[in-house]
Amino acid sequence: MSIANDLRRHVRGRVQVAGDAGFEQAGRPWNLAVEQPVLAVVEAADTHDVAALVRYAGGAGLTVATQPSGHGASGDVAGVILLRTGRLDELAVRPEQRVARVGAGVRWGRAQAEAGRHGLTGLAGSSPEVSVVGYTLGGGLSWFGRKHGFAAGGVRAFEVVDADGTQATITEETDHELFWALRGGGGDFAVVTALEYDLHPAPQLFGGRMVWPAERAPQLLETFREITARAPDELTVWLSLLRPADRPPVVTVDATYLGDESDGRSLLRGFERVDGLLVDGRRRLRVAELGEITSDPTDPGASVFRAELLTDLDDTAAKTLLAAPIDPLVGMQLRHLGGRLARPSETPAGHLAEPYLLSMVGIPTTPPVELAVRARQREIVAALGPYVSGRKPFTQLAPEEPAALAFPEDTLDGLRAIKQRRDPRGVLRSNHPVNPIGLP
Fold first, then answer.
1. The pLDDT value given to residue 52
2. Bridge partners (DSSP) listed for residue 237
3. Percent of the chain's residues with pLDDT above 90
């Protein structure tokens, strides 16, 4: 009997294998530059489907990799069953308790729209298309991380299917070990079908994007350094050098402030003194509009991404970043971190001592362009030298980078020990497994 027939006997959701119409499309990740040579794709109809699939895979000696939205895919899925959880789309906000419950298929845009109706916000990032569950399992770097820390730190409970196919509710009280691992250690330890997380008051929210021509980069980077050096935890500022395909290069400043408009404008006043402002999109924002600030892609596309944590952004580091055009990259971004993110947390994500995150992205339109993009990323990192710490947030790992880069050694050892105890047969696989591929 074929695996397709086997799977269709065990699950009610859609099953696709090689040769089926739409199989290649169903297996594609968000980043189309990543290949996913999966054995089959299963779109779970409900949590019972998830449990049945995991039990089948365990009995057949197969592996399941879960991707709610396809973000963060690494390509390490040869011969595995790809589980899609988009139909697990329950969403409930309990405003009196400041708690949201979301299924694994819920994306941040929808979750934020519902929370915002009650003057509340989750700890969302820049993209409204990323799944809440996938993002949170990797820690979750939010616009409001400086104020409230990693998104994973606010999880109250997980609904899971473990590596034996058993459904359970996991809290710190019911299973401290697994609860700890899931709050930022990735998806290696159980399939999360839903989670409950804290919401935070956001009665007033100010922010948006400002745009200048590229030649203003030196003044803007200096202003960025000055403002972030004294920014309160409620203020988050990101600076980007962008090279759009059909327009002149620009510098953008993206900001959010958890507070009233007048205070937000005052804190960002330095940017208004830089000549040449082309666009000022700052305004009072609704929580539902948070995902519009950076205009992140809303459809899958190919990209080559690399991120690095920076230990400082002094004169030398700033000059290094602006020493040459970013070509052939299409974007280079600096995110200000610090605040609560720099303080210890009770999650595998730990804390980020580094005050800035640098990300670099290019579009691999042809193989030579891809090689040139990767070479430029290496050149920038090499030039920065000691300013690059070497550690990376889990959700900022490039497809080819191992989970080991995201955790201190003792944390990684702890996660690997939990993986061995909870899934010794290697039935489940994260986008970035805590153990090297080939080991359970």
1. 97
2. 255
3. 94
- For residue 20, what are its two tokens? 């089926």
CATH code of the region 205-396: 3.40.462.20
Residue closest to 82 by CA, chosen among 158, 132, 18, 153: 18
Local structure of 320: helix, strand or coil: helix
In angstroms, the CA 37 to CA 435 distance is 20
- Give the per-residue pLDDT at 246: 85
Domains 91-201 and 205-396 share a fold: no
Mean pLDDT of 332-357: 96
**Residue of 192, 191, 188, 190 whose CA lies nearest to 434:** 188
Over the stretch 59-82, which tens digit does the pLDDT of each residue have?
A: 999 999 999 888 989 888 889 999
Break the chain down into helix, strand, coil percent, rounded to 5.
30, 25, 45
CATH fold of 91-201, please? 3.30.465
242 within 8 A of 252, measured Cβ to Cβ: yes
Segments making up each domain of the chain, as ranges: 91-201, 205-396
pLDDT at 420 over 90: yes
Predicted pLDDT at 148: 98
Computed on alpha carbons and rounded to an integer, the radius of gyration of the chain in Å comes to 22
Map residue 28 onto helix, strand or coil: coil
Task: Let me know if 21 is exposed, middle or buried by CB neighbors in 10 A (0-12, 13-18, 19+).
Answer: exposed
Residue 440: band (very low, low, confident or very high) from pLDDT cuts 50, 70, 90: low
CA distance 260 to 232: 13
d(CA 386, CA 69): 36
Using the predicted structure, report yes or no on whether residue 179 has a pLDDT greater than 70: yes
Q: Counting Cβ atoms within 10 Å, is residue 321 exposed (0-12), middle (13-18) or buried (19+)? A: buried
36, 28 contact by CB (below 8 A): yes
Other CB atoms within 10 Å distance of the CB of residue 4: 16
* Tokens representing residue 83 in the block: 């589980």
Closest CA to 67 of 53, 51, 85: 85
Distance CA 356, CA 236 (A): 11
pLDDT score recorded for residue 439? 55
Other Cβ atoms less than 10 A from the Cβ of 307: the count is 19
* Residue 413 confidence (pLDDT): 97
